[in-house]
Model the fold of this input.
Amino acid sequence: MDFLAPLTVALPLVVAAILIGGAHLWPSQWPDAVAALTAATVAIMAVFLAGAAAKAGPLVYWFGGWTPRHGIAIGIAFVVDPAGAGCAAFVAVIFCASFVFSWGYFDQVHARYHALMLIFLAAMAGFALTGDLFNFFVFFELMSTVAFALTGYRLEASALEGALNFTVTNAIGSFLMLAGIGLLYGRTGALNFAQLSRALSGHSADGLVILAFALLIGALFIKGAIVPFHFWIADAHSVAPSPVCVIFSGIIVPIAIFGAARLYWSVFAGSGIAQAQLRPLLVWLGTATAVTGGLVALMQRDVKRLLAFSTVSHMGVLLVGVGLLSAGGLAGGMLYLLGHGLVKGALFMVGGILLASCAGIDEIELRGAGKAFPLTGIAYALGGLLLAGLPVGLEHQGRELIDAAAEAHGYAFLAPILSATGGLTGAGILRGAGRIFLALGPEPGEEQQSPSEEEREQQDRPVWLMLLPIGAMLACELMLQAFPTEAAVRVAAASFTATGSVVATVLDGATWSPPPAPPGVTETQMMGPIIGLSVALGIAALELGRHHFPRNLVRVADLALGWLFSALDRLHNGIVGDYVAWLMLGLLVIGGVLAIG
Amino acid sequence: MGASGIRTLSRSLCDILNAVGTSERHGTNIVTLVNFDYRGFDTLGEEYILFAAVIGAVLLMRTHRGEKTSARPGKVSEQPVPLRTDAVALGSRPALGLTLIFGMYVVLHAQLTPGGGFQGGAIIGSATLLLYLGFGYRTWRQVMPTAVLDPVEAFGAGAFVVAGLAAMAAGAPFLTNLLPLGKTGSVISAGEIPLINIAVAIAVSTGFAVLFVEYLEETREPDAGDEE
Done:
C-alpha cells in the first residue's frame, strides 16, 4: 500500500505535464474530464492510504530509498498518518467537485487552467503527507505560485490588484517560513520532522527556537487567514473565479491551519515552547479572528467577499480547536475543517451560478434575480443555516468536540461566543438568500457602503451540472454523520498527537502501538445551535425588514453601530502596505507572548 | 552548538552528506548530488514551481497573444520601433553560439562542477534572446513556434516525474537511481543525475523562451484573427 503515497503527488503532476504538452490538441471538454478523473483517482488512493495507516500506524515512505542511518534521516520521507491521508483525500474530493462545477468554463485557455489546478492538487496532497520541513516548504510555495496565477485569471484591473495583494502578503509568508527553517536547521542540523522533534525535545526553548516557531506559525497564519494576517483573503476571493474560490476557502486556507497543527505536534510538542503561553495565545487569536470575520462578513454586499470573511470567522473557530492543544480539540477542528470545507465550497458554487446565470454577484443589485433558481436558493440558505449552527452534520459534530475540549481547559465561556460568530456569518448569508432568491429586503443597510465588483463568468453552462456538485457536497456534510466519521477522526487525531510514537516509528522503525482516542461527546448541548441560529435568523430578519421599522429607530441603530462597521471597513482598505504592517504586528505579538513566557 | 545544547545530532545532515556523497554517488558536486539524488523530490517540486509560474504567466498574458510569426514586436500604435544596429547584430551572433555552448557545458557537468540543469537552462534560455537581437524578430519566432515550445517544456517537466515512476515500476521507491554510477569525474557518471539535469534544462530553457515570447508579444497590437 505504501506505493500509493508518492503516486498521490506524482499522478496529478504527470497528468498536468501531459495536458500542457498537448494543449492545442485536446478537444474541448477533454481537459475537464481528465482533470476530474485524476482528482477522483487521487481521492481513492488517499482513502486507501488512510485506511492502511489507521490499521497499521503511520506509513513511512523514504524517497529514493534513502532510509535513516544510525537514527539520522538522510532523505525525504512521507509520513502517512490517517489525518494526513484523510486530508489529502478531502482535498482531492473538493478538487473533483470543483472540476465538475467548472465544466466548460475554461475551454478557451487550452487546458492551462486544468494543469495549474492539478499541480495545485499535487502540492496540497504533498503538503498533507510530508514528514520533512523543507519538503513542506516546497509544497507550500508550489501552492502559492499556482494560486497567484489563478487569482488574476479575469485580467481586470481589480483582479490583478487582488492577485498582487495576495502575492505580496503570501510571498512574505514564504520568506518568513524559509527564515524559520533556516534557523531551525542551523540549530539542529536536521530537516526531518521526527529528527527535529527529537533534537528539540527535553531542552528549554531559547530565543532562537521561539523565533523560528513564530516565523513558521506566522507564515501559516497568513495563508490560514488568522487576524491580523487575514487581509489578503477578501481581495483575492472577490476577484478569483468561483471554482478557484471553492478551492481557496474550502481547503487552501484551512489546510494552512492543519499545517500549523502538523508543525506543532510533529516538531515542537516536546520542545520548551510552553503550552501555558501558547494555548491562550492561539485560543484568543482564534476568538478574535472568529469575531472580526463574523462582523465584517455581515457588512458585505458582494457575495464572494461575504463568504471570504465568513471563512475568516470559521478559521478562527478552527484555530481555537487546534489551539487548545489537545487531541479532543484537534479532532473537533478536523471535523470542523471537513464540514466547513464542504459547506463553504457549495456556497461559493452558488456564487458561481449567480455569476454565470445572473451576470452579477452583488446582493443588492441581484435582488429578486434568483427567483428562477429555487434549488440554488435552497442550497444557499441551507448552507447559511449549517454555518450558523444547525445541529446536524460534520461541522456541528466538530463544534461539539471543540466546545467540550474548551470546557476541559477552562474556556467554557468561549462556546457561546463562538456560536454567536457562526450566527453572524449565517446572518449575512441568509440575508443574501432572502434578497436574491425571494426579493426581500428592498432597503439595504450598512452593507451598501461596502465594495462591489462588476463581474460575470462564462455563460451557457447547464445549471444542473453546476448544482450537482453543490448537492453532493451538502449531502456529504449531512450524510457522513451516519457513518462512523466522527470516531475515525478521533482515532486520527490521537495518532496525529502521539509525537513520541511517531518519532520512534519514523527514525527507529519501532512497531506502532495505537494511542487511545479522545472521548466523544455523549450529550448533545442545544445551547450552541440555539444561540447561533437565533443570532442568524434574528439579524437576517431585522436587516431584511428594515423598511417595517420606524425610520428614527433604524437611524439610531445605524448610528450606534455605524462607527464599528466603518472602522472595520477602513481597516480592509486594499492597500497592501497596510496589510504587511498588520502582519508584522501579528508576528511581534506571537513572538513577544512566547518570549515573555 | 547552542547554549541550551539542542544540537543533539552528532553531525548535521550537511556534514554527513559531505562525507559520504562522492563515494556513494560518484559525483564531485555535492550540491547536485543532494538536489537531484538524496533530496531529489524537493527539486521535483521546485521544477514544478517554475513550470507553474510559466503556465501562470502565459495565462495572465493571454489577451493580445497571437500565433503569427510575421508581426514585429513593440508595434504599439504611433510608437516607432527602434531599428537594430549592425553592431548589435554583429555582437549577438557570435555571442549566441558561445552562450549556447556554455549553457550546455553547465548542464552536462551538473554532477562535477557548480551548476546544473536550472542554471544551464537559464543560460540557454537567455541565448534565445540573442537570436532575436542578432537575427531579428521574424527569424526568432520562426525558430521558436509556441506550438512546439509548450510540448517541449511539458516534456522536460514531466520527464523528471517519469524518472521517479520508472523506479517504482522497477520495484524501488520513487526517484531511486536505476542506472550504473559510472566513474567519478566522468561526464557520464552519478547515475540518472545527468539525464534528469538535461530534462530540467529543457524545461527551464523552453520556459524562459515561452516567457520571452509572451513578454514581447504583450506590446504588440492584436491583428484580426488573433486569439483574444
In short: The first helix of chain B runs from residue 13 to 25. The CA atoms of residues 53 and 189 of chain B lie 31 Å apart. Chain B has eight helices and no strands. Chain B touches chain A through 57 residues (CB under 8 Å).
